[in-house]
Amino acid sequence: MDGDSRVAEGPVEVLQRWFGHKAFRGRQEEVVRHVVAGGDAVVLFPTGAGKSMCYQVPALCREGTGIVVSPLIALMRDQVEALKQAGVAAAALNSTLSAADAYEVRRDYLSGKLKLLYVTPERLVSEPFLDFLTRGHIALIAIDEAHCVSQWGHDFRPEYMQLSLLADRFPGVPRMALTATADPQTREDLRRRLRLEDAPVFATSFDRPNIRYAIVPKQNPRRQLLDFLSRHEGDSGIIYCLSRKKVEDIAEYLNAHGVRALPYHAGMDRAVRDANQDAFLREEGLALVATIAFGMGVDSPSVRYVAHLDLPGSVEAYYQETGRAGRDGLPSDAWMTYGMADVVQRGRMIDEGEAPAEVKRVERAKLSALLGICETAGCRRQAILAHFGESHPGGCGACDTCLEPVETWDGTEAAQKALSAIYRTGERYGAGYVIEVLRGVESEKIVRNGHHQIKTFGVGSDLDEKVWQSVIRQLAAHGAIVVDHDAYGALTLGETARAILKGERRVQMRKDRVFKAERISQKAT
Ligand code: ADP
Ligand code: ZN
Description:
Elements: H1 11-19, H2 28-36, E1 41-44, H3 52-61, E2 65-69, H4 73-85, E3 90-93, H5 99-110, E4 116-119, H6 121-124, H7 127-134, E5 138-143, H8 166-169, E6 175-179, H9 184-193, E7 201-203, E8 211-217, H10 221-229, E9 237-240, H11 244-256, E10 261-264, H12 270-282, E11 287-290, E12 305-308, H13 315-322, E13 332-338, H14 340-352, H15 357-374, H16 380-387, H17 400-403, E14 408-410, H18 412-424, H19 431-439, H20 444-448, H21 465-478, E15 481-484, E16 490-493, H22 497-501, E17 508-510, H23 517-523
Parallel strand pairs: 1-6, 1-7, 2-4, 2-5, 3-4, 5-6, 8-13, 9-11, 9-12, 10-11, 12-13
Antiparallel strand pairs: 14-17, 15-16
The structure holds adenosine-5'-diphosphate and zinc ion.
């Protein structure tokens, strides 16, 4: 023993003395006590709930070094910096370290001086490194962002798969998996792959009661955004866009319209980007227009709104991104505008990606789960929580559909018309074309294809274009329409199309609020 007094401290003392927190939150203390006693654990807390304390405190209570597996060097660096500031002996071993620094870290590990050591998964599982670790004393192994091991997670990393070997390699060392992604498939998958089937699961509710959800159909997104922002004068918030170009355009647009905005994306000059991030963290009343490059590890408590001008790829991503609002517990808004073009674009990104077919299938399923939430006529919060395997009675009173209940209409006939138009034009055209056929537009292309002579031509002239867009989006959310991205977003018939066409299945549709209500009630019913 080198007289390290920390070993003798209890969890609460460690929390107070080293981290300056008065008391544990939520289920932190349960986890900490369980791990200090030598148990394995699966920790599923939403972002911001305080997962780090769950392994940092036990690492200081137990003898030896806590090994933390983390996927991103930037995240590691932030954590290590914060720990060092608090006076905790912590280090990260990664490729950016000089040989001399790496030597020092290794020495401190072997001597037992180091309390926390952060490593990437690929380094941890390398043979020489595993050998090295066995020569010292490990207090615990914490696998952060553990959803990365699952193809169901939104951030699959093949390197995580090999972490299963830790169970055999370090028997008797407490192992923990921590993540903010907890849909039932991912949860089971990660327990199995990390050999934590027998470990207790510590989960807390994913509900963020102070966040108000709203998802609106895309009409004129810039105007809609300005309109939304007019309710947030003087507030700070994040506006997510998919592309770098759009980030810059929107930031410029907002500045021109009296909203102070700064862009942030990975393609920007590092110094400018960092300056913009700092300004956002420091100043008030600033809109940060960003790609998802912004957010990881940034924890600004007073974000009053998160706006999405493009559709995220999954419910998990949507939840993570919107979750950056209202960390201080005050009322905040999560607002999104989306349209069929977003669905097509997202689908194309999946199809054009490098992932194997199996992963693409999962990605498509994830996208359609999000569509289901966009198109629900029920409580959004209930739908989001249901996705994470949590039941909520609905009627939350803080989502657009609860605040202003959506009317529904029997869209069976409209659905049949749309599906039939898709079928009769050979399942080869996108939404715009199909809608023109339905509405009887004699465009040059339609006439050239002879589609002005088919039976469904013009059968949908009673509903306007916006209603048809809504019908098609909802059918896509129901799985009756599948977008074929290999064919430039052509609409094809999905699994449930047949039953709808044969009249075996009726379809309730939500009436989008932006339509003049009477337009549908007069004509569609
Ligand atoms: P997560 O990893 O779950 O997203 P973090 O571990 O980064 O969350 O913690 C989020 C924030 O909550 C941090 O600023 C942290 O200091 C703070 N925090 C964690 N536990 C406590 C606690 N018991 N009391 C007060 N603040 C806490
Ligand atoms: Zn609700």
